[in-house]
Amino acid sequence: MQVTTRVNYGQSVDISGLAGAVSLAGSGRGVWAVEGGNWQMAAGLINISDVELHLHEEIDSISYLGAYYELNSTKGNAYSCEVTVVATPLDESSIQFSPPVSVPARQLQHTHATFVRGLVNPVYFGVKAASEIPELVATIEDPRLPFTSISILKCYNETDMTYKVFSRQAMTDALLDSIFSVRKETVRINWGAYPHYKAPEKFAPFILDGKHLYYVNAFENAASTMETSAVAAENIARLILSRFFGKDSSCPSDTKRTSCSSAEASRSDA
Ligand SMILES: Cc1cc2nc3c(=O)[nH]c(=O)nc-3n(C[C@H](O)[C@H](O)[C@H](O)COP(=O)(O)OP(=O)(O)OC[C@H]3O[C@@H](n4cnc5c(N)ncnc54)[C@H](O)[C@@H]3O)c2cc1C
């Protein structure tokens, strides 16, 4: 169990039962990924939607100005939106809200993903050959263990692989040089990955201001997955249909009014 909560959420079993159950689900059979990358799901949804996508442009403030919200971006653009959906965690975000919004304090669990092309060092793992090391090495809670998991992402040949290392702290070059006997290329990403779970969880509201400012990522206090985020997003869409358009949320909308998301840039998953 400890291994699954560490691999899925970078945390010990000291998390809520639901997040623990989701970790278990993710370790069993029946999990899937889109061939070529899960990013294609987001790209596909955007392609079939009637939306204008602004990449590489961050929203730095959201102000309620009576009948609409004004979203100001780092590129100096201002967008007027009758409905605004925040679809990124606010915990480490610098978006300024006017009037201010109140969300319970929540720490994010940082997961350092380090991608290494090369070969693992059998000496580090106490075996004779790299081929004896399993495709997934997952660890338990022990302060002496510097990583959560190491798995093979791609195998080019017996001595040339790409590995994915998850850890709570950044992996130093010296540490990587002890774990890998060959290291041709290294890519590091520090993700503010998921909430640092602490049961009983306090949830931020899904409607941030009682009007038409919505927050998808409030749901992540229950569990943080692509599927649950999609369900949370659908529920927000239904809320908008019923609260803004005054429609039965089971019917698709045919009305064209402006709505904006503060998370219009796409991200590929680790
Ligand atoms: C290392 C790692 C491994 C994971 N593994 C899995 C897994 O195997 N299975 C699974 O289901 N889930 C996994 N997850 C969780 C999954 O990635 C998240 O649940 C999912 O990405 C949440 O989607 P989202 O759209 O809410 O947020 P995100 O995917 O984080 O998207 C938020 C977007 O908002 C953008 N943004 C941020 N601030 C602004 C701003 N001010 N203005 C404009 N745009 C902004 C960001 O650039 C980003 O594109 C993993 C997460 C991590 C970090």
TrEMBL record:
Keywords: FAD, Flavoprotein, Glycoprotein, Oxidoreductase, Signal. The keyword Glycoprotein applies. Its cofactor is FAD. The keyword GTP-binding does not apply. Residues 250-270 have a biased composition (Polar residues). InterPro entries: FAD/NAD-bd_sf, Prenylcys_lyase, Prenylcysteine_Oxase1. Residues 248-270 are annotated as: Disordered. Residues 2-247 form the Prenylcysteine lyase domain. It comes from the Eukaryota. Belongs to the prenylcysteine oxidase family. This is Prenylcysteine lyase domain-containing protein. It comes from Salix suchowensis.
